[in-house]
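quick one before i forget lol
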Amino acid sequence: MSTPKDRLFEVYETYRIAKLHRAADWKDAKTLGEAKKIQRNVDALETTFLKAAAAELNAKGDAIEQAYQAAKSARQSVEKAYKDAQKLADRIRTVSDAAKSMATLVKKASEKV
């Protein structure tokens, strides 16, 4: 069973990784559209992290645990994408998917029972 601290960690760590690699991703970007997608992903993760930090994230239940596991898996995918130096388009998509998973986790874990 995940704790509110575990949930916040997943959101923060995903944001931290994306932000850490943002400049290198911008350097790899071939188009303005790619650069904007990179920034949107980092912005989305930052917004989600700030919401998570302000929320209690203490809801319980199977849906929250499924969202937590999905977020954890998404964070691991982001780590792998950068570790394996995947193509920029793949990294952008992986971070975008992770941002959605983190937002889902925060929404579900913040719900009042």
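fyi Residues 4-110 form one domain.
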